[in-house]
Amino acid sequence: MASPTSTIRNLEESVKIPLLKQSLTAIFSQYGTIIDLVAKKNLKAKGQAFVVFDSPQAAEQAIKEVQAFPLFDKPMVLAFAKTRSDATVKREAGEDSQEFEAHKRRRLAERERKQALAALESQRHASTAAAPQADAAKATKKSGGLKSTAPAAAPQIPDEYLPPNSTLFLQNLPDETDSDTLTSLFGRFDGFKEVRMVPGRKGIAFVEFEQLEGAIGAKEGIGGMTLGDKVVKVTYQRQ
Questions:
Q1: If you average pLDDT over residues 33-48, what whole number do you get?
Q2: Are 119 and 197 within one domain?
Q3: I need a surface site. Which of 16, 29, 48, 223 has the fewest CB within 10 A?
Q4: According to the model, what pLDDT value does residue 144 have?
Q5: Rg of the chain's alpha carbons, rounded to an integer?
Q6: CA–centroid distance for 148 within its chain
Q7: The pTM is what?
Q8: 138 found inside a domain
Q9: Terminal Cα distance for the chain, rounded
Q10: Cα-based distances in Å from 157 to 49, 124, 205
């Protein structure tokens, strides 16, 4: 299905972002009104950009005519975006609409899911690289008549990159924090269900929501907030 957003890949990574955006604007503005143009300098986004037009027809014409056009000596690779952009949803549904808010939550959940998978894959590679050293250590112990009983450590995703789910895990809470305090903080988010304190443990708690979207919104809204003299850490519950 045609989309008003075109993805552009194979861009020259050494070009400064302002110059890149200026050049892309000059090229693509010939095909229609540009609603948004996104190009970032972070590592994962290097070499690519997104152009959001006011209609799918404009994007389609641009893709056909600009495909393989050399920009800074590299042929551009164009395609329709697989998902709707923020600018498109905002334009069609309105910035304050529930549809736009739901769109942002879905995008955030997908981004966090990809971060979790990337973190797990990175740990798997690290474990694979460490395997020869572990084998050597086992051989040394074996030659000395010692037998290791420790199980092999499985890769574990860091808290910050756990995949989204409907339960949040709170850490670094002030010792005096109680259920009522947390309910007043998290109860304003859609789908709030309950706060679960941990008996005998200070500084941590769980907050459960009816749906994933509520947990995502609460994590973004509360994470990093200062409560008392502590910065609250909010992650998803490890499952």
A1: 82
A2: yes
A3: 16
A4: 56
A5: 24
A6: 39
A7: 0.46
A8: no
A9: 36
A10: 29, 10, 20
